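Reopening: DUF4365 domain-containing protein still failing for me.
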Amino acid sequence: MKKTGEEPFISAKGDSEFKLLEFWQWNQSDLLNNALRGTVAEFIVGKALGAVDGVRLEWDAYDLVTADGIKVEVKSAAYVQSWAQTKHSAIQFSIRPAMSWEASTNTYATEMGRSADVYVFCLLKEQDRTLVNPLNLEQWEFYVLATGQINREKGSQKSIGLNGLLKMQPIVTDFEGIKEAVLMCRRNELLSSKRNL
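Support: Ran it again with your exact input. Result attached.
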């Protein structure tokens, strides 16, 4: 169940004077932090897909599920980090196969693999530390690939750089085009699978 932020912390004496919102502000204001930036990217993609109605499942086999049942994995990277840097970060995305856990059944997969149907790689592309803002949708670029293509071309490879990703000819889009790109990737992959039967 989603919280509002107005929920108070509780002690033996009853409600305390501080609320959940204060925890969120303290814990989640550094949006350039690697882990939190990844969650922000998931939320942005989820909003584009209309897939953030419930509450995020931290350890599910994939990040999002569309209304059409398309399972989506979201990966993020950025040039600018929250720590002091002497140079911009090299762009790398994880594509590591995993022994996934399915939240709906509380079971683990029996073999390593990539559980999603589609990957959305999210690049926070702004390189000026004074301007970078993960809340600015114009600063993000999205690269969309079917998982089947990743499996065929990259096998058990664990990560991929931006140049390697671009060589795979993903659909490159802004926020507005994410939904259509995901649908197109899934549709093309299903057509390709049928042709190969």
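The first helix runs from residue 20 to 27. If you still see a failure, please send the error message rather than a screenshot.
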